[in-house]
């Protein structure tokens, strides 16, 4: 073997070891990063966790099993909490998730919807349930109105909504009509929103020809975009800021292990989202404005949601 051959082989081995060393450092660095992310996420969820008294919804015969991919229903509440004031639920959105069909259904409930407030025994605006009895009364009232189980809740402080949008780097939405609101101009078509403009975009309703329904649709646009941005790889670089904002401004009864199980078994469902609108009409009762939903329309919506949750007509209340 010549000296030239030995030198070539030596250089080849050297580059192999250098490449392996670089790969090893990258793997160790990635491992440390993943551990840091996992640990930070666990700490954040601990801060977010807000348990409720009941073990599971009374409208379920059996408890949800994530490994069996049982469909679930989640209540999203946007609340205006300031200081010691509990406030009211400004936004109420129910999302049903069926991993077997890889699909989600989303329905916004107008805050002025007239229904029985469970635990109070009288009819009132549905968003007052939270003001009267907090999260559990809101969940029970919405369960009664839709006649479906509400398994989990996610409560977002709307005053911090802009921080959440900024934490994921802003969102892009498709605006259906041009309008101005609180000093901001929103052009028709695809627009990019920062946290501050997203909050304004989601709150305008009086100049919307569809009123509260138009506002609800804009809120759903932003929620979906936040979910998509938060799930993207690029957001990992900013995970520290995202987790800080989430931990400070979002509460849920989901535990860390439950979130991991949902991520594992339900994540593909977010790509197929169907949205529903609650049919009704405005009416004044004793001088107060309500959104009144007929029994026929309420049952029709309930049936759709039950089918998606695979509970059908056989669902009974478990005491």
Automatic annotation (TrEMBL):
Annotated TM spans: 15-38
Function noted in UniProt: May catalyze the final step in cell wall teichoic acid biosynthesis, the transfer of the anionic cell wall polymers (APs) from their lipid-linked precursor to the cell wall peptidoglycan (PG).
The protein's annotated pathway: Cell wall biogenesis
Extracellular side: 36-319
Alphabetized PANTHER family for the sequence: POLYISOPRENYL-TEICHOIC ACID--PEPTIDOGLYCAN TEICHOIC ACID TRANSFERASE TAGU
Family classification: Belongs to the LytR/CpsA/Psr (LCP) family.
Subcellular location(s) of the protein: Cell membrane
Keywords from the UniProt entry: Cell membrane, Cell wall biogenesis/degradation, Membrane, Signal-anchor, Transferase, Transmembrane, Transmembrane helix
Superkingdom: Bacteria
Ranges of the Cytoplasmic topological domain: 1-14
Domain Cell envelope-related transcriptional attenuator: 88-229
Main location: membrane
Species whose genome carries this gene: Litchfieldia luteola
Keyword Phosphoprotein: no
Entry EC no(s): 2.7.8.-
Topology with respect to the bilayer: Single-pass type II membrane protein
Record flagged with keyword Nuclease: no
This protein's name: Polyisoprenyl-teichoic acid--peptidoglycan teichoic acid transferase TagU
